[in-house]
Amino acid sequence: MKMVKALSTILLSALILVGCSGTSMQTQNIDETKYTVIGPGTATATGIMLFQFIPIQQNDRFVRAQNAAIESRGGDALINVEVQEDWFWAWILNGYQTTVSGDVVKLK
């Protein structure tokens, strides 16, 4: 019985730790002579915490917003990046809305 309890505890701990991982936004140092500025790009991504415990599209919302901002102008990268986060509350969930904006560039 002790073995089952120990395995259950280890499994639960592993699941919690795996569920709490996310993807970081990637930035680049680009030489000014190696890109052309296309124009401003902005995008928003939303993630939800259901019952304050279950993440739904929560962990990668920064990366999704960044990629959507780049794709909004058909570029390759984003410079002069600004990140804004807002949140909202409902009875069974919290929502987190991330907006990424900046200058979209096309690499040469």
Description:
- The model has no long low-confidence stretch (mean pLDDT 87).
- The protein has a domain at 34-108: Translation Initiation Factor IF3.
- It has a four-stranded antiparallel β-sheet.
- It is built from two helices and four strands, in the order αββαββ.
- 27% of the residues lie in helices and 44% in strands.
- The protein has helices at residues 2-19, 61-71; strands spanning 35-50, 54-56, 77-89, 93-107.
- The chain is of the alpha+beta class.
- A hairpin with a 3-residue loop joins β3 and β4 (93-107).
- Keywords: Signal.
- Residues 1-26 form the signal peptide.
- This is Lipoprotein.
- It comes from Moritella marina ATCC 15381.
Element layout with pairings:
Elements: H1 2-19, E1 35-50, E2 54-56, H2 61-71, E3 77-89, E4 93-107
Antiparallel strand pairs: 1-2, 1-4, 3-4
Organism: Moritella marina ATCC 15381
Signal peptide: 1-26
Keywords: Signal
Descriptive terms for the model:
signal, Lipoprotein, single chain, alpha+beta, Translation Initiation Factor IF3
Concise synopsis of the structure shown:
Keywords: Signal. This protein is 27% helix and 44% strand.
CATH topology category name of one domain: Translation Initiation Factor IF3
Count of β-strands: 4
Sheet with most strands: strand arrangement: 2-1-4-3
Instruction: Decide which structural class fits the backbone.
Output: alpha+beta
Which architecture name of one domain does CATH use?
2-Layer Sandwich
In percent terms, what proportion of residues is strand?
35-45%
Total number of helical segments?
2
Main pleated-sheet profile: 4 strands, antiparallel
Distance between the termini: 64 Å
Radius of gyration computed on alpha carbons: 19 Å
Order of helices and strands: HEEHEE
In CATH terms, the superfamily of one domain is Hypothetical protein apc22750. Chain B
